């Protein structure tokens, strides 16, 4: 339990910058004032693939109200691009050296962390979420 608490405390103060599929950099610290869902996933992961359409629905519903969804993959860009193209509109970030995966201490996927507008982590999920479960998380960050 102590290790889990230390990991969560570390995630409260985390910062990173990664590029999306088009090469645009996304810095976590620059997203203060937004509700940020950080999701770790991979194309080969069945539970990840199952939750992605639900995340797309939420992104379309809440994006104009301040939700930013950052989906982070450590796979090669070409593989990720061919998988998401035409299906997902939220930012897909690449973590080629797994540096951000290491920052978050990611051991398995899917894994999601939700931060409120002040940058405080308010919820996390260590497995696949449904749309309803994501909605409950978003409520904890003030989005309804």
Describe this structure in words.
This protein is α/β, with parallel strands linked by helices and 144 residues long. 28% of the residues are buried. The protein has one domain (2-126): Glutaredoxin, CATH 3.40.30. Helices cover 35% and strands 23% of the residues. The N and C termini lie far apart (31 Å). The mean pLDDT is 92.
Features:
single chain; 144 residues; alpha/beta; Glutaredoxin; 7-stranded mixed β-sheet; 5 helices; 35% helix
Short précis:
With 144 residues, the chain is of the alpha/beta class. It has one domain: Glutaredoxin. Helices cover 35% and strands 23% of the residues.
Share of residues in helices: 25-40%
Mean pLDDT: 92
Strand order of the largest sheet: 2-1-5-4-3-6-7
**CATH top level assignment:** Alpha Beta
Total domain modules: 1
CATH topology: Glutaredoxin
The main β sheet shows up as: 7 strands, mixed
Distance from first to last alpha carbon: 31 Å
Q: In percent, how much strand structure appears in the residues? A: 15-25%
- Helices and strands: which structural class? alpha/beta
The CATH architecture comes to 3-Layer(aba) Sandwich
Q: Tally the helices: what do you get?
A: 5
- Which quaternary structure do these chains form? single chain
Order of secondary-structure elements: HEEEHEHEHEEH
């Amino acid at each position: 339990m102590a290790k889990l608490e230390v990991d969560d405390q570390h995630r409260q103060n985390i910062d990173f910058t990664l590029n999306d599929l088009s090469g645009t950099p996304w810095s976590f610290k620059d997203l203060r004032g937004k509700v940020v869902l950080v999701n770790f996933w991979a194309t080969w992961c069945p539970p990840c693939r199952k939750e992605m359409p639900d995340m797309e629905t939420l992104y379309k519903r809440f994006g104009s109200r301040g939700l930013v969804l950052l989906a982070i993959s450590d796979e090669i860009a070409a593989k990720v691009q061919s998988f998401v193209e035409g299906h997902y509109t939220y930012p897909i970030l690449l973590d080629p050296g797994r540096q951000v995966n290491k920052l978050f201490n990611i051991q398995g996927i899917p894994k999601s962390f939700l931060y409120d507008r002040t940058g405080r982590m308010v919820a996390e999920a260590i497995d696949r979420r449904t749309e309803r479960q994501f909605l409950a998380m978003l409520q904890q960050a003030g989005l309804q």
